[in-house]
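REQUEST
  id: r-88c1
  op: predict_structure
  target: Thyroglobulin type-1 domain-containing protein
  payload:
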Amino acid sequence: MDKSQFVTNLVKIFRSEYNRQPHVVVNDSEDSSETDRRVLEWKFNSLDENGDMMLTKNEYWALRELVRKSVKPKRCARAFTRICDLNRDTNIAKPEWMTCLGLDINLLQESAVSLAGHLPYGEDVGDRKEEAEVSSDCLTDRQAVLDEMRTNNNEMYIPECTPDGRYQKVQCYRSTGYCWCVNEDSGNTIPGTSVKDNHPKCDSVQPLSRPMKGCPEHRKQTFLRALMDFLTHTMASQKSSNVTTKDTQNTSQEEQIATWNFNALDINKNKFLEKNEWKSFRSLISTHRKLRRCGKKLPRYCDVNHDHKISLTEWLHCLNAQRPITDSSAMPTPNPRRVGPNPLESYLKDK
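RESPONSE
  id: r-88c1
  status: 200
  body:
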């Protein structure tokens, strides 16, 4: 079990450091779990420089780098701080630290939804640049869970993904019956959306606004409205084009416009907007005064997973033209087994 082995290896290193401290008396008869708890508290306090019971990025940065280089399995070492940061605030509180390292880490899979309303493998958006070399998306996280289940046969939450590696809006932990809405880019749960044995209405949830570097929020909103007007005009002026959209019955007008323009820009029809395709579009909008400044920032803003290409999902998301949910396949399947005595049993006995 990779994660359990990782915790064991890391706590062993902490214990070795602890035993080398002056005035520490090693008691071999003491229960190992009690020793580990004291060691973990000592290590947390030694990292918590300002004593606020919270490890900030600056406080755990050196430990994270050391863990990545020295502790195996490497896959767990790379995700160490993300897994321990249960509420995804980029800090690790003492309860999170003790839960993450003081218990079998598999328990986090069962408690993550109820404990903080976050996915077990949700991505910390703030760490993306620092963790570019180990970039994680939904497909990667899903495969990691499936690999883990193959080795230990435990029931775990399995992320549901879009084909381009983002998270489905609705996520469900099937064995518990709970479903909730998530941010499609990071996989982080949207607070207050968790429901049991039901399908949450994720389309009614207003997505969190992401900052566009170099384009303040008020200017970004004005730019996006002007850009949608520009795309509408572009589509209307080329009605005779053979570029078409499919499945428009359940889509908004904004999504149809955004999708039409995406297909028109996707010259090689590989379902991604790549660098060469973006150049012509950026040149086009640079001639419009209202679009020029923020338009230069648009490719990076839309490329949420930093793979240097923009999928249709990313395009719709950054233009605020998301596809509505019509698929109920993510709903947990009710248990078909009947509870209680068999009503035919007495009838059969009489026969």
